[in-house]
Amino acid sequence: MFNIGFGELILILLIAFLVVGPQDLPKVARALARALKYFRGIVDEVKQSVNLDSELTEISNVKKEIQQTVKNVNPLNNIDNEIKDVKEELQSTEKVFKKSSNF
């Protein structure tokens, strides 16, 4: 995570030992570990929130696509078109019969 080598780690521990002192060093280490755990938890929550937001956006887009597809493939629209075609054919046939009966 931090790309710290063994030599750098020893140097950091030596400086911490000199600054904090040998008696308080374990307390400070525990406090730092707790703080690091807390911040990792916050980062994980933010990542999950961002993932949920992107998933919700994706679901919303899929829902819109499905609604558009259903609208385009609505069987009633097809039936209406068929009925109109049959009605036009019947009307044209009726005109032909009327013309032929007038002779």
From TrEMBL:
Transmembrane segments: none annotated. Signal peptide: none annotated. It holds the Pfam family TatA_B_E. Keywords: Cell membrane, Membrane, Protein transport, Translocation, Transmembrane, Transmembrane helix, Transport. The keyword Magnesium does not apply. The keyword Transport applies. It comes from the Bacteria. GO terms for molecular function: protein transmembrane transporter activity. It is found in: Membrane. GO terms for biological process: protein transport by the Tat complex. GO terms for cellular component: membrane. PANTHER family: SEC-INDEPENDENT PROTEIN TRANSLOCASE PROTEIN TATA, CHLOROPLASTIC (PTHR33162:SF1). This is Twin arginine-targeting protein translocase TatB. It comes from Clostridium pasteurianum BC1.
